[in-house]
Amino acid sequence: IFLTARADRAFDELVLDAGASDHLVKSQLNGPLLDRSIRYALERKRVEDAYRESEERFHLIANATPALIYVTDAEGRGTFVNQRWLDFRGRSFAEECGERWLEGVHPDDRARAEAYFSNALHQRGKQEIEYRLRRRDGEYRWMLDIGMPRYLPNGTFAGYVGSLTDITERKLGHEGLAPMHDETISAARMRAQFLANVSHEIRTPMNGIIGMSGLLL
């Protein structure tokens, strides 16, 4: 809580942007105001701690999953990929975040994939597409990409969470694997839905932060 003699709206915004939970002016200070500010600061910290904990739980679940997992923002830019993804691609998160992961899509599939993702983002519907993705050893593997839209508790579209399943053998028609097609698709869909539910359930504290920030302003 930032306490000063300066009463200035612009200074309020500067202090809050710097991370303070509140800005109190000495000449306006009284017991109830200070009590309310302290209560808000404590509640904000509790919610922020809960959000960090929920993010850690989601990352632990995603990193324990053998599939390639990703999360995007509302503009479709990648904000998270799990360790399995990084191991498969052989690149760092900084190299894969945003839209740079598309660099790994086969040149013959890239335009089709970009058009599909753009349309799905506009429609905000479920994603389900197959394309080739470059592995760290240079080989391109056919991947089944299933993404589920995710929403904040207030109904705001927040992006996608999804998974990639390697379907190269089935795609190339290797004997004995074709009957597994339906099972592979079903399992991938269930995994994507599970991740979407997990993402929604353990990330809801963020809505509390947004709401309290609005009340403060």
List keywords for this structure.
217 residues, alpha+beta, five-stranded antiparallel sheet, two-stranded parallel sheet, 8 helices
Notes on the protein architecture:
The structure is a single chain. With 217 residues, the protein is of the alpha+beta class. Helices cover 50% and strands 21% of the residues. The chain is built from eight helices and seven strands; from the N terminus they run E-H-E-H-E-E-H-H-H-E-E-E-H-H-H. The protein has helices at residues 9-17, 31-63, 83-89, 93-96, 107-123, 168-171, 181-203, 205-216; strands at 2-4, 23-25, 68-72, 78-81, 127-134, 140-151, 157-166. The strands form two sheets. Strands 4-3-7-6-5 form a five-stranded antiparallel β-sheet, with helices on both faces. It has a two-stranded parallel sheet with strand order 1-2. Helix 2 (31-63) packs antiparallel against helix 7 and helix 2 packs antiparallel against helix 8 (205-216). The longest helix has 33 residues, at 31-63. It is elongated. It starts with a strand and ends with a helix. The model has no long low-confidence stretch (mean pLDDT 83).
Alpha-carbon distance between the termini? 14 Å
Mean pLDDT comes to 83
Q: Count the helices. How many?
A: 8
What is the oligomeric state here?
Answer: single chain
Shape: elongated
Query: How many β strands by DSSP?
Result: 7
What layout of secondary structure does this protein have?
Layout: E1 2-4, H1 9-17, E2 23-25, H2 31-63, E3 68-72, E4 78-81, H3 83-89, H4 93-96, H5 107-123, E5 127-134, E6 140-151, E7 157-166, H6 168-171, H7 181-203, H8 205-216
Parallel strand pairs: 1-2
Antiparallel strand pairs: 3-4, 3-7, 5-6, 6-7
Helix pairs in contact: 2-7, 2-8
